[in-house]
């Protein structure tokens, strides 16, 4: 049987505490319960959730340090990777963003049920947040998982990150080819040289990659462009 605690113990240096283990069990129960009401996630097998949702989310800790102060999760869906990261880093200020209202509602209830503090869930378009002074260049980390191609994702994430902070994109086998197409956009938006950390998930051996870009300069004021424009006309 796939078990998050044993997967982490075998393949990482992470040792879940009893409190953290209980939080993941509760979170999984909430996901399964809510998924019967509406489509939160295509992965509904409990063991598969342990690997492809929770373990996969926690691979972000290969890049994000324990003392990270703030993180915004774009296109969070059911709260992934943001909620698993918050369970592991309770001092993290977490903002979860999705354009689907029911998913945002779930994230609010999940955070409350799990006793997670300093968590905000927003029903919003990321392009609007990137031009909002309350969010623009306010975060140490901006992360996204399976949201958009990297040239588009750079325009979503880098405007939200403070200078010295990082965007982090969770990608699969297409990481290298996506990065080639995104390098110009990254430079335009204030990012430095991308760092790619490639690895495999245990058991399934699915290819994964974390693409981290440290922000070196302020993003020019015209970015992000209006909602819908980055996906229709990617920078590059």
Automatic annotation (TrEMBL):
One of its GO terms (molecular function) is rRNA (guanine-N7-)-methyltransferase activity. Keywords: Cytoplasm, Methyltransferase, rRNA processing, S-adenosyl-L-methionine, Transferase. InterPro entries: rRNA_ssu_MeTfrase_G, SAM-dependent_MTases_sf. It comes from the Bacteria. Its EC number is 2.1.1.-. One of its GO terms (cellular component) is cytosol. It is found in: Cytoplasm. It holds the Pfam family GidB. Gene3D superfamilies: Vaccinia Virus protein VP39. S-adenosyl-L-methionine binds at residues 75, 80, 126-127, 145. It is an enzyme of class 2 (transferase). Specifically methylates the N7 position of a guanine in 16S rRNA. Belongs to the methyltransferase superfamily. RNA methyltransferase RsmG family. This is Ribosomal RNA small subunit methyltransferase G.
């Amino acid at each position: 049987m796939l078990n998050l605690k044993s997967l982490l113990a075998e393949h990482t240096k992470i040792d879940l505490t009893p409190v953290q283990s209980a939080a993941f069990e509760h979170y999984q129960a909430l996901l399964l319960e809510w998924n019967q009401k509406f489509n939160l996630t295509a992965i509904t097998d409990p063991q598969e959730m342990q690997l492809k949702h929770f373990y996969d989310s926690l691979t972000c800790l290969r890049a994000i340090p324990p003392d990270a102060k703030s993180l915004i999760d774009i296109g969070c869906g059911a709260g992934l990777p943001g909620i698993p990261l918050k369970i592991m880093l309770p001092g993290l200020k977490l903002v979860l963003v999705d354009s689907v209202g029911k998913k945002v509602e779930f994230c609010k209830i999940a955070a409350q049920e799990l006793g997670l503090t300093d968590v905000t869930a927003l029903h919003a378009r990321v392009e609007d947040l990137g031009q909002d002074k309350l969010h623009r260049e306010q975060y140490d980390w901006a992360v996204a998982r399976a949201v958009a191609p990297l040239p588009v994702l750079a325009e979503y994430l880098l405007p939200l990150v403070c200078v010295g902070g990082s965007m982090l994109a969770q990608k699969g086998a297409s990481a290298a080819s996506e990065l080639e197409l995104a390098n110009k956009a990254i430079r335009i938006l204030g990012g430095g040289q991308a760092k790619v950390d490639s690895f495999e998930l245990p058991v399934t051996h699915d290819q994964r990659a974390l693409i981290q870009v440290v922000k070196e300069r302020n993003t020019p004021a015209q970015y992000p462009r209006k909602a819908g424009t980055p996906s229709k006309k990617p920078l590059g």
